[in-house]
């Protein structure tokens, strides 16, 4: 009986259909196209902002070099495979391989052009822009703006008379503590009303949000060195990212 079972198992294994490489080539092609679209548009930076984590150093020193080397190795291996199997491949298979090779080459070329020439390109978004959009989406979900404004109304102008005052965490309301910010600062807006500014970041840049009364003016973005890129959260509130 055991011999029969072993024989049947071997026959079953032999009858298994071979791996459908055309299907896997299609999956790989879709993954490459998605990567080529998402990365230049700032997909990684958006996620960093969405989770309020700055990984500029990690991106620059590890993630992007690793991805770049992986793409180059993939292109070289695919090109070798295409040349060695050109006669055996069907026309459809050749087309798939050419697409797999061509799209990453265009991706790398567009990256090189955007960084190595003075020509302004709109394919690659500056990292701070998608980061700030992601951070704004995070704040929209988490922030209780009304509660923060109610707390601001309890403060006097004397609490903010030195324009910006750093306050200890034990004096923060719960609506601010949930963010675990690095700094919470008080100030006065152009109408003389209290406002609060939360800040995160370090040596590679800072970001945060500022909330005042509904009539507080939201300043336009300042694109000079050490200026701020700003996005409106709602009237009297905005998120910002420092430019370096």
Give the biggest beta sheet. 6 strands, antiparallel
End-to-end Cα distance: 76 Å
| Helix-residue proportion | 40-55%
Query: Taking strands numbered 1, 2, ... along the chain, how are they ordered across the largest sheet?
Result: 1-2-3-4-6-5
Task: Kindly give the count of domains.
Answer: 2
| SS elements, strand count | 6
Low-pLDDT stretches are none
Compute the CA-based radius of gyration. 27 Å
Q: List the total number of helices.
A: 8
* Assembly category: single chain
Task: Assign the structural class, choosing from mainly alpha, mainly beta, alpha/beta, alpha+beta, or little secondary structure.
Answer: alpha+beta
Mean pLDDT: 78
Shape: elongated
Q: Which sequence of SSEs, written as H and E, runs from N to C?
A: HHHHHHHEHEEEEE
Strand proportion, as a percent range, falls in 15-25%
Can I get a quick summary?
Helices cover 50% and strands 15% of the residues. The protein is an alpha+beta fold. α3 packs parallel to α6.
